[in-house]
Write a structure and sequence with these properties.
The protein is α/β, with parallel strands linked by helices. It folds into 3 domains: 2-101, Orthogonal Bundle (Multidrug-efflux Transporter Regulator, Chain: A, Domain 2); 112-189, Methyltransferase, Methionine Synthase (B12-binding Domains), Chain A, domain 1; 201-328, Cobalamin-binding domain (Rossmann fold), CATH 3.40.50. The chain is 52% helix and 11% strand. The strands form 3 sheets. It has a 5-stranded parallel beta sheet with strand order 6-5-7-8-9, covered by helices on one side. A two-stranded antiparallel ribbon has the order 1-4. Strand 7 (252-256), helix 11 (260-265) and strand 8 (281-285) form a beta-alpha-beta unit. The protein starts with a strand and ends with a helix.
Length: 338
């Protein structure tokens, strides 16, 4: 879809995009980008202290201009010469920018919230290809946590809010949830098995709730950090699996609920024991205990709140302390023997 034609000088020259982001936006490969820079001197990225290339909106616009000339029949060498001559002669070239690639504000790359809104719009039209492009743009610009929580999850929440207001049909909401779920499951499946601890973190939701995306994000972040995760999903009532958790040797059990009625069911649960008879650390996340704070006194599990980053950090801190204790114990025993 073709957007407006803009003067090259109207684009910011602040270096903000890495190679991956530029390739995602323009469609050219990293090898082609390096070849054009080496042979023709265009574009001319800045370098970080570590030697990484950083490109500006103007660099991206130059690439769009060169691509358009080659599509019109020019060789890349001819296109570069024409652009160079125009710039030397004081002529400001015009660039036709695709609507989906409109330039960011001069202050820097698009915010995660901006990309998330566009991702929600792509989901509204069931445009999986554009959704992939937007997710990849975010992944090239931001950390995995930010991309998952603020972009992917944020887009699903925007769609859910639109659905609640009757602005989109249920088919759109299901597409958004399934798109996010499939992407997360693929990333989980392609993440190597954890090596830092053999006892897994077990994540459990409720079948009546639409928050499995949150559990999958927490699980993926833990796996990427090197921890083992067993996701029991939202298909079974937690009461059906609770008894089976005894002797499972889980390191942490995370229950996740947004509905107070479901959270109340946890009040009858006992803290499971591992195979050595030690209590397993059980925690609860989600909005339910935030919406009804009195429930926190009735449930025998520690409440970690609603922020996915905070839940992830709390679990990682516990796991790291657990591993450190195991490492210290043998040396302490040797000293006692001496």
């Amino acid at each position: 879809m073709v957007g407006p034609t803009l003067l090259l000088s109207s684009f910011s020259d602040e270096p903000v995009y890495n190679v991956k982001a530029v390739c995602q936006r323009t469609g050219i490969t990293a090898a082609t980008l390096r070849a054009w820079e080496r042979r023709y001197g265009l574009p001319t990225p800045n370098r970080t202290p570590n030697g990484y290339r950083l490109y500006s909106e103007r660099d991206v616009a130059i690439l769009f201009w060169l691509i358009q000339q080659t599509e019109n029949g020019m060789s890349i060498g001819q296109a570069v010469n024409q652009l160079t001559n125009m710039l030397v002669s004081g002529i400001d070239p015009t660039v036709r920018v695709p609507e989906t690639q409109m330039p960011a504000a001069p202050s820097g790359p698009r915010s995660p919230e901006s990309i998330s809104r566009d991702l929600a719009n792509a989901m509204t039209t069931l445009d999986e290809r554009y959704a992939d492009q937007l997710y990849n743009e975010a992944a090239a610009l931001y950390t995995l946590e930010t991309t998952l929580i603020h972009v992917l999850r944020g887009a699903v929440h925007l769609i859910a809010a639109q659905r609640a207001r009757g602005e989109v049909p249920i088919t759109v909401e299901r597409f958004a949830v399934n798109y996010a779920r499939q992407r997360l499951l693929h990333m989980i499946q392609t993440t190597p098995s954890a090596l830092r601890a053999k006892n897994p973190v077990v994540t459990i939701g409720f079948p009546s709730e639409q928050n499995e995306i949150d559990l999958l994000i927490i699980g993926l972040l833990l796996r990427r950090a090197g921890w083992s995760v067993v996701h029991l999903g939202n298909d079974l009532e937690p009461s059906m699996v609770h008894a089976a958790l005894n002797g499972m040797n889980a390191s942490v059990i995370l229950y996740y609920t947004d509905l107070p009625a479901n959270a109340l069911k946890l009040a009858d649960f006992n803290i499971p024991m591992d195979s050595q008879g030690k209590p397993i650390w059980c925690v609860c996340g989600g909005r339910a205990l935030q919406d009804v704070p009195t429930l926190q006194e009735q449930i025998p599990f520690e409440y970690l709140g609603t922020e996915l980053r905070s839940i992830f950090s709390a679990i990682v801190n516990y796991l790291e302390a657990r591993v450190s204790a195991v490492k210290v114990r043998p040396s302490a025993q040797r000293k006692a023997a001496q």
